[in-house]
TrEMBL record:
GO terms for biological process: oxaloacetate metabolic process. Residues 398-418 are annotated as: Disordered. GO terms for molecular function: catalytic activity; magnesium ion binding. InterPro entries: DUF6986, Pyrv/PenolPyrv_kinase-like_dom, Pyrv_kinase-like_dom_sf. It comes from uncultured Blastococcus sp. This is HpcH/HpaI aldolase/citrate lyase domain-containing protein. The keyword Metal-binding applies. Its cofactor is Mg(2+). The keyword DNA damage does not apply.
Length: 418
């Protein structure tokens, strides 16, 4: 009953097969390994031995001293989450560490070499002791002319020291990117650093300038940067204050929930979708320090911003102070625990083929599995709780989500093309 000749199908395949291959190269799919819930930035001159444990201890002390205020979250969820938060702060308080040799660094130019080398030695010692975070790296200075050589030199020193101590993987964060040519020029530098020091490098680009979002020709610079960087890129990180200031937003209104921030971050999400890189939220500089009143106010703000980001699909953000870990984990755990019952039930119905009030398709099932896996990864709940909620085993979740079996953390599955 068909009227089409085989030649029509053959011609369709001939035309679209190269397009299929190019699309798979450009959009290999989401990077499915564990994503940290935050990145903690610590100035190079402030790195101490046992840094992650020190941050966890300080966070627990702040919690014990000040107690939690009303964070605008479901009190029952907070009560459920709090024992797990305390355990997290004791066992794995920092999931991702970035030694900061840029804006956070307060040393002088003649001390930067010593500070960077000392920081690298301390981080490497923590790696060897098994107390370092899952992911570590450095933020150097920008590639603008006044800071270019100093920035690359700090990377060279830091990665050389890491390599000399036997550490073999790190992340480099490039701040204040303004031009696609900066990304192109930086890739050979990263390759040279890898060759010199034997440390495999992942790249993050920091979105802190309007030029990084929209180019002079009216095109979306972010999307072009992502594809120029290729499989080395693991994330775009939003820089709350530099970006806001560049738009002329008054300091009192510079925040990660400003409409200007939402615009930039939504473009970041679109630019990285399907590429394997991730869009990461920025920071708040309102720190939980000082009186109980000040600490509570900062925690309430931070918890609200973390929750807001999670609702919008930003599963990672910046933390700048140990006490921010309290609300990072309380808000994150409450979010995933709230999502668990419905996600587990819908997944079970999808896998069993039973009818529910919601018709879920494979893409939705992948998203549901991804949310549950994120909750497991960060410690919001465990496998037992997942099974009690009616969800499938982790291996089934891995399969539904598209996660590669047996890979976790900084596994290089999507970057084998390098």
């Amino acid at each position: 009953m068909t009227g089409l000749d085989e030649s029509v199908y053959a011609e369709l395949d001939r035309v679209l097969t190269p397009v299929d291959a190019l699309r798979l190269t450009r959009y290999p799919g989401a990077w499915p390994q564990r994503q940290p819930v935050h990145t903690c930035y610590v100035p190079a001159d402030a790195v101490v031995p046992g840094l992650a444990a020190a941050w966890g201890t300080a966070a627990l002390q702040a919690l014990d001293e000040h107690g939690l205020p009303d964070l605008g979250l479901d009190p029952a969820l907070v009560e459920e989450a709090l024992p797990r938060v305390r355990a997290k702060l004791a066992d794995e308080p920092v999931e991702d560490l970035r030694v900061d040799a840029e804006d956070g660094y307060r040393g002088t130019a003649d001390h930067e070499d010593d500070d960077v080398l000392r920081a690298a030695a301390l981080v490497a010692a923590d790696v060897q002791a098994g107390t370092a975070p899952l992911s570590i790296g450095i933020r150097g200075k920008s590639l603008e002319a006044p800071t270019r050589r100093r920035g690359v030199r700090s990377l060279d020193l830091f990665l050389g020291a890491l390599g000399a101590h036997g550490h073999r993987r790190a992340v480099v964060t490039l701040p204040k990117v303004t031009d696609i040519d900066q990304v192109k020029a930086f890739l050979p530098v990263l390759a040279a650093l890898e060759a010199a020091h034997g440390v495999a490098l992942d790249l993050e680009l920091q979105v802190e300038t309007p030029q990084a979002v929209l180019g002079p020709d009216g095109t979306a610079t972010l999307a072009r940067m992502v594809h120029v960087a290729g499989p080395r890129l693991i994330g775009l990180h939003y820089g709350t204050y530099d970006y806001s200031a560049a738009l002329g937003i008054a300091a009192a209104h510079q925040a990660s929930d400003h409409p200007a921030a939402d615009f930039a971050k939504q473009l970041m999400q679109v630019a990285v979708a399907g590429t394997g890189a991730r869009a990461v939220d920025g920071s708040t500089n309102v720190l939980p320090v000082g009186s109980r009143e000040n600490v509570h106010a900062a925690w309430q703000l931070h918890a609200r911003l973390v929750r807001r980001a999670l609702e919008r699909g930003f599963y990672q953000g910046w933390d700048l102070h140990p006490a921010q870990l309290v609300t990072r984990y309380v808000a994150t755990y409450a979010f995933f625990r709230e999502a668990l019952p419905a996600a587990a039930g819908r997944l079970a119905a999808y896998l069993d083929g039973t009818g529910t009030g919601t018709l879920d398709e494979p893409a939705t099932a992948r998203a549901l599995a991804g949310v549950v896996l994120r909750g497991l990864d960060c410690g919001a709940f465990d496998d037992e709780e997942l099974l009690r909620a009616g969800g499938p085993e982790r291996s089934v979740l891995d399969s539904v989500s598209g996660r590669w079996p047996g890979e976790d953390g900084q596994a290089a599955g999507r970057r084998t093309a390098r």
